[in-house]
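Researcher: Next entry: Prenyltransferase (Companilactobacillus halodurans).
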Amino acid sequence: MNKKLFSELSEIKTTTLDLAWLLLAICFIYLNYGTFNILYGILGFVTVFFIHLFINFHNNYMDYRNSHDEEYREKISTIGINRESLAIVKKWMYGLAIFPLVIGAFLVYQTDWITLMIGIIGVLVGLLYSAGPKPLNSTMFGEIVVAIAISQLIPIAYSYLGLFGSGRFDSSTAISVILVSLPNTFAFFCAELSNGTCDLEADLKNGRNTLVSKVGKANALSLFKASWALAFMLIPILALLKVTPYITLIEVLLYPNIWDDLRPYLKEQVKTKTYPLVIKAVSKFSVTYILLIAVGAIIKLITVKF
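Model: Predicted structure:
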């Protein structure tokens, strides 16, 4: 398998988000508790990184294997376009699983069963997305579950590892992490919706009854707009509730710019043409939000010292 095909099957570019969630967890936990176990955080990131690669390989493998549409197999699927052997894809997939198993086992040994449970839930969601008698990507719950798993479960895992041993991670901490991650959850739900609208015809041909196919494209676009509005509305609410630093209010100024990025997609839903614009908007929103929380943490650190 060449480097280009590995990159496409693993969708390695999407793993930059794993690092972004680590930065979010470090800044938020340090902002509120003044401590973070960097070693466990980094090991957690490496584990999540390889799980992400493994699951992306698995999803591409299962999508090809379960496809009923020859056009999808030959002209859309990365495996079909490159005429790669399923046996080779499978070997690489299982090879990638070794790294998170080893590092994850070490983290569980060093921490406790909660780390194990978070890991199991994350992996199960990833595998069940495209596997089993009724894969999540063939149901109306796929978009919601994926958005929550990506934007909520990973930051909670990092936060738990970062505070492990301090005795300070409790239900209140978990709720705070969930709240601070909510804007990203709605933004990622929009990314999933845009993917569903662009893939609607292919999904129907392959028997996938997604949320978009259930509510219709017009309603899905309305839901897309509402979710973006909620993502931005949460910014001032969380700042006023003192869940996030006041400097995150600057994020609201991005609204006109991001809306301009989304206009082409709202006019036409084309996977190769307008879907990347949605991903660009989501990345811009999430990265800016996380960086502003980081700035807030730095400001607090400076003011405490002086």
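Model: Note for the record: The CA atoms of residues 44 and 81 lie 34 Å apart.
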